[in-house]
């Protein structure tokens, strides 16, 4: 791994854990085992490092969406496999980090908002279209409405104000929210697959 990639990886790991404001360039240099001068050779200032590290994280997530889409045999499998990535992201990102990006790094926050629109929302819409074409999702769905509803569901699962960590298990929240969503959009044919993937007991 090149020095710049090591710095980005270390910075993102620390930002995810502690937030951005409390992490210094010296902290990142020490974690990488390099001098602070070397960090500044690759990044002019912390603002630039924040911007690139966040973009690195967003690009990774987009790549995950692509892999889930291409490797899944159908829309339902794609959606469920994607949940694992979303759950991992929620577990590894401190909400403080996103709050600080919004408050102190407006240009980077703009990239996050664009990711929500061009990445997350587009991915949900493409999955809905695929599921309809495969006969697994109802063909009367209003894609623009349902996709935004799904996006809000996911964002609420990330929100500690809605599901405090000391009261709710993230895995259970994601399971319940997603099972409700999938069963609501699936056809009878789709329900059979959902039951297999989520191991739902039809007699419950």
UniProtKB/TrEMBL annotation:
> Keywords in UniProt for this one?
DNA-binding
The keyword Repressor belongs to this UniProt entry's keyword annotation: no
InterPro entries linked: Homeodomain-like_sf (IPR009057), HTH-type_Tx_Regulator (IPR050624), HTH_TetR (IPR001647), Tet_transcr_reg_TetR-rel_C_sf (IPR036271)
**Which residue spans does the record list as DNA-binding?**
24-43
Against PROSITE patterns, the record matches this protein to: HTH_TETR_2
Q: Matching SUPFAM superfamilies, A to Z?
A: Homeodomain-like (SSF46689), Tetracyclin repressor-like, C-terminal domain (SSF48498)
Q: Which residues form the HTH tetR-type domain?
A: 1-61
**What is the name listed in the Swiss-Prot or TrEMBL entry for this protein?**
TetR/AcrR family transcriptional regulator
